[in-house]
Amino acid sequence: MASRFKQNMQNFFSGRNGLDELGLVCFILSIVFSILNMFFPNLVIFYILDLIFVIYAFFRFFSRNVYKRELENERFTNFFKNIFKSGSKDRP
Is the pLDDT of residue 2 over 80? Predict the structure, then answer.
């Protein structure tokens, strides 16, 4: 029974994108906005942002269009590499 379940899960997740840097950041932002929502329950914006980020993270995780998700993740990581690289230049 357990091996059949394991096989079914492997079949389901084969060809899916899985967790990458952008998906992880989306999950972390979702947790942050969820915590903020607990402290400020009257501000609906935190709830909406939490919902947006968690839905987008799950969308990326279960997506079968791996090529597009890899391109998105590459653009995301290159964007932050360029930001941190330009900020670390020696200034005269």
Answer: no
DSSP-derived secondary structure for 25-59:
HHHHHHHHHHHHHHH-TT-HHHHHHHHHHHHHHHH
Question: Per-residue pLDDT tens for 3-50?
Answer: 888 888 888 878 888 889 999 999 999 999 999 999 999 999 999 999
**Which residues, other chains included, contact 76 with Cβ-Cβ below 8 Å and sequence gap of 6+?**
21, 22, 25
Please indicate, yes or no, whether the overall pTM of this predicted structure exceeds 0.70.
Answer: yes
- Give Dmax (Cα) for the chain: 67
The values of phi and psi at residue 43, to 5°, are -90, 105
Residues 6 or more apart whose CB falls under 8 angstroms from that of 23 comprise: 17, 57, 60, 61, 73
Distance CA 5, CA 85 (A): 46
Report the sign of the C-alpha dihedral through residues 24, 18, 49, 35, in that order. negative
